[in-house]
Each structure stands twice: as structure tokens, then as C-alpha cells.
Amino acid sequence: MPNMKEIKDHIKSVKDTQKITNAMYLIASTKLRKAKYELDRTLPYFNALRGEIKRIFRTVENVDNRYFYPPTGERSLPGTYGYLVITADKGLAGAYNQNALKEAQRMLSQHESGDNKVFVVGEYGRQFFHSRNIPIEKNFLYTAQNPTLQRARNITSLLLDLYKKGELVKIFVTYTDMGSGLESSARTVRLLPFNRSQFASATYEERVKIPFEFSPNVSQVLDSMIPSYVSGFIYSALVDSFCSEQNARMTAMDSANQNAQELLDELSMQYNHVRQSAITQEITEISAGALGQRRYTQRLEGDTEP
Hints:
By secondary structure, the protein is α/β, with parallel strands linked by helices.
């Protein structure tokens, strides 16, 4: 059994660790609130942009655009698929990174017959793919911390440039959806090409009776709108993933704090037990010494009697 000094050192070490986990919990909580606030400020613009794209499809029939499947519906597209995988820069966030990477591996396995280009946000994901010899686009190195709209635009510019050149025929985004905030889940969304049903009205709105004039034409109007819409989606995915990471880290740190407190309670009980044992041992030794001394004194007194 460890002695009192060893137990006290262990208690001090656990308390120092608990201070770190408490600090990480508070930092994650602050980052989560800040990121959600920034997303809420930008969402109205992108929702309005989506509404305008829906209005175009309610106004004009059979719109032909490279960002959309034809009116006949989805079809198989041979060629290279692009996968944007969003992870964290570090661990200590529960199963957040593992779930996102499992989802990415599942998607990659579905297109093993064709070429794939992987774009990774987050150092954790980059290390994961490098360790498995899965090539990553070298010119795409972004941190997952502090997602910004400008960074989303840079990512969009790169992906759309490859898409317009024909180097990518489909683009998928794997990220972690924050959902209601109680439970996050990794998911994959096909970013391009769009299905027209994504912009169909759920309420079957009446067609626009007053015709719009598109200059120079509908396709070029969509060409100018889609990059902004894609930027908004990627920014939303970055923020959702970042918020999910912080939420997972808060959960992990809260669990660590609870485990540390349980360990401290156990160590305190063990320390008290060892201390009580030491006190009992000292009392026993003193009592035994006093008894021995008394007997020795009595024996001396008995020897000196006439």
C-alpha cells in the first residue's frame, strides 16, 4: 500500500490535471458560442440566396446549367470524385474525429473503381490519411480552428476551379452535423452537381406570373450565384464541424472532471485510512512503551524493597 506522501503527491497531480480539463471545458464553451454567433449572422444572406435560386426554377423551365443535373434526373458520371473531409486539428474530443473519418472511408470505398481526390481540413485528418498512404491534395492545407467566410470562399474557389475544368465530376463534403446540439453525427452531402429537387418548393408555390428578365441569360446568372451559395454551404459545414468538435470536447472534459473527482474521493478515503492506520500504530507503540516502562518501574521498585 502506498504511504501518505505518495498518496498526497497523487492527489496533487490529479488536482493539477483537473485544473487543465476545467480550463479546456471553459475555452471550448466560449469558442462554441462565438462560432454559432458568427454563423447566425451570415445564415440569412445564404437563405435568401437559396430562395432566389428557387425562384429561378419556378420562373424558367428546363434550365441548363453545369452545376445541375439535367431535368431528366441524376445519372452516373464517370470520372474523378472530390471529397472534402472536415476534421479537427487535435484530439481530446471524444469520438468526433473517428466518426468523421469512418464516414469518409465509407464514401471512398463506394468509389474505389474510379479516381478520388481528397481535400482535408484539419491536421488530425491529414495525419490519418498520410498514415494510410492515401494521397491528399498538397495545395489544400487549412486549419480547422476559427472557421471564417473568407476561408470558405478560398476552399470554394479551389473546388469549383477543378469542377469547371472537368478534373472533378462530383464533389462531396464529409462533416459533422451539430443538429440540435444534443447529439452530433457525421454525414456526407453531395455538393455538386445539384439535384433540381433540392431547390423545389415544399409548398408547391404557384409559378411566378410576372416574367423576369435575366441578363445576359439564366445560365450565367446561376453561374454567378452558385459560387456564393456553395461558399455558404461550406462555411456552414466548417462551423457545424467546429461547433461539434467543441461540444464533443466539452463532453469529454466534463467526463474527465467527473472521473478526476471520483479518483480524488477515492484517494482522500485511502489517505484518511492510511493516516488513521499510522495514528493507530503510533498510539499502539506509545501505549506499549508506556506499559513496558510501567512494568519496568514496578519491577525495579520490587527489587529495592527490604
